[in-house]
Amino acid sequence: MSREPIRTNVGVTTHGDNVVRGASVRDRLLLEETRWSLLSRLIDGPELSRADAAMLDDMLVAIACPDPRIWPLKVAWTIGSYGDWWAAHGAVTAMLGECRMGPWACAAASDTVSVFRRLKGEHGEGFEDAVVEWARPRARRREVIWGFGVAGGRARRVDERWAMVKTAMAHHGRLDSPHFQVATQGATVLERRLGLVPNAALAVGSIGLDVGMSRSQIEVLMYQVLGPQIVGNAYEASRLAPASLRALPEDAVEYVGPARRESARAREAGG
Question: Domains in the chain, start-ordered, CATH in brackets?
Fold first, then answer.
């Protein structure tokens, strides 16, 4: 077993003060740091201003969709029905770490945005054709193009969160931020020419890149964005504790297997 010391500067407690990534809470961060800038500092991310934090607050609200029918939130309801919102929240967190949606999908969508940036730089005015040439064979192979596609069946033709994020970005004067701008341009082209519809992951991925985050840091960003929605459903489930979620209805269960066999002792005892 290795005895090599672990070296980290994530934080330390001192007498009368605490330190986050080398910065004094008392002398530097207090009354200056925001929730978002503190988060970014803790994951060794970029410096975020209060203007960045205000924009991220509005992005969080723009993509709010705490519908209990969304399947990660169904997990919160199922576990929360036993009366413990902590366990329900933990279950969703564990599940999101293994599935290609939510935080992971937003990080993956940042790769799509990076491709758009590269194609824009390489092709200039030919950007539109270049994006289509890149996306068309992938669409034909039915590959997932991260940042595109809308769940919910044919009745849901657009991801309303994409439009609301654009409204928030316009409010903060950030529509022309490099990654968000090229994401918008690429989305417009692919929707018009290939029928590929952008979703909220494309917005989050591009915004994360514009504030200077890495792919893995964008995952953390999106997890924090989802946090209030997860807690809200976990708390409501534990408050209501619906018994109906603790067992499947009998008429919904069909046994498939060998016929029931009773032992001699069971038959003697009347079953």
Answer: 12-42 (no CATH), 50-244 (1.10.230.10)
